[in-house]
Design brief:
By secondary structure, this protein is α/β, with parallel strands linked by helices. The protein has two domains: 192 residues, HUPs (Rossmann fold); 115 residues, Rossmann fold (3-Layer(aba) Sandwich). Helix content is 29%, strand content 25%. The protein contains nine helices and 17 strands. It has a ten-stranded mixed β-sheet with strand order 5-12-6-4-1-7-11-8-9-10, sandwiched between helices. Strands 14-13-15-16-17 form a five-stranded parallel β-sheet. A hairpin with a 5-residue loop joins β9 and β10. The N and C termini lie far apart (47 Å). The relative contact order is 0.13.
Length: 326
């Protein structure tokens, strides 16, 4: 039977919202194709491998060996997963192939899926999606969605599509999904994979830590050294970050002003690529890779989606208030 595999990113102890969208789309496609829907979660396990768990695959019932993912099991079951795959890795979890690649490759090798689905806005999608397509020789669909009710097809925004009758494999980054009623079995099986090793030993992550890497996606408030020295600006930046569900980041010099939380220091000149970046002043870090960039206290320019000149603190407060009132 064909397999549909959905990669699940975690947001704390809960599946990422975009990954749940991907799971909903995967459920529709799997039901149409008569395929088994697998939801795969990669978890950090620094402990030595248990002698009771042989290399490769073992089957377990929740809670059993799957106790570590009990917090997400019910959400994935109600999202429509037929089986959950939990992959233990010694590597720190970061949205990079160098960190997740060996563990993710173990899932691909074991299941050999016909379709692999990522949430388009999930942290790992941009890194793992294209590489997965290249590894398994599959077509890549960006911002795809499931079309139809019975004979479902996967359609990209550029008009390309895939039906069950088509040959070959596909990888889809799903940007929209149908609404499904919660369903699933509380006794859903959990497959445990424990591939040897952790991160790719040929690649070394230099000058950064997993906490910093996690902040290169989603929403960031990048604050300049000068702006962070103003307590009013610092408070307003944190208020805006709270409203947007993001983080305030800056250089080591900014950290000396107590404007940043631990782990939010980014090296000077380091490139960031969040979905949304609000640049306060002229940050010492590179924010040009943001999908959407808004500047506060400086003029716009190429690649800037919006700018508010004038007093920084009052602009931040007004922007946060406007968003809170929505």
């Amino acid at each position: 039977m064909a397999a549909v595999l959905v990669h699940i990113d975690l947001d704390g102890a809960w599946p990422h919202a975009s990954s749940l969208q991907a799971l909903a789309a995967g459920r529709v496609v799997a039901s149409s194709w008569g395929a088994t829907l697998y939801a795969a979660v990669i978890v950090h396990d620094p402990r030595s491998r248990s002698e009771s768990l042989p290399p490769g695959v073992a089957m377990a019932q929740v809670p059993g060996e799957a106790r570590a993912v009990e917090a997400v099991r019910l959400a994935l079951a109600r999202g429509g997963a037929d089986k959950i795959v939990v992959v233990k890795t010694e590597a720190a979890i970061a949205p990079l192939w160098s960190a997740l690649g060996p563990a993710w490759q173990a899932v691909l090798d074991h299941l050999r899926p016909r379709l692999v689905v990522f949430g388009a806005d999930a942290p790992s999608a941009s890194e793992l999606g294209p590489r997965t397509a290249a590894r398994i020789g599959a077509r890549l669909f960006l911002r795809a969605r499931a079309i139809g009710s019975e004979d479902v097809e996967l359609r990209d925004r550029d008009g390309s599509y895939m039906r069950a009758s088509d040959s070959g494999a596909a990888v889809a980054l799903v940007g929209a999904a149908p609404r499904l009623e919660p369903h699933g079995d509380d006794d859903i099986d959990v497959m445990m994979l424990a591939p040897p090793g952790g991160a790719d030993p040929r690649i070394e992550l230099v000058g950064t830590q997993p906490a910093s890497l996690a902040r290169t996606t989603g929403t960031l408030i990048a604050i300049s050294d000068d702006a962070a020295a103003d307590p009013q600006v610092a408070r307003a930046a944190h208020r805006l970050a709270h409203v947007l569900g993001g983080h305030v980041v800056g250089s080591a010099a900014t950290a000396e002003t107590a404007a940043l939380e631990p782990g939010a220091v980014i090296e000077r000149g380091a490139p960031l690529a969040p979905a949304l970046c609000v640049a306060v002043g002229i940050p010492a870090i590179d924010v040009a890779g943001a999908a959407s960039l808004v500047r506060i206290g400086s003029t716009g320019g190429k690649g800037v989606d919006g700018a508010l000149g004038g007093p920084i603190a009052s602009n931040l407060v007004e922007l946060a208030r406007a968003l809170e009132d929505r």
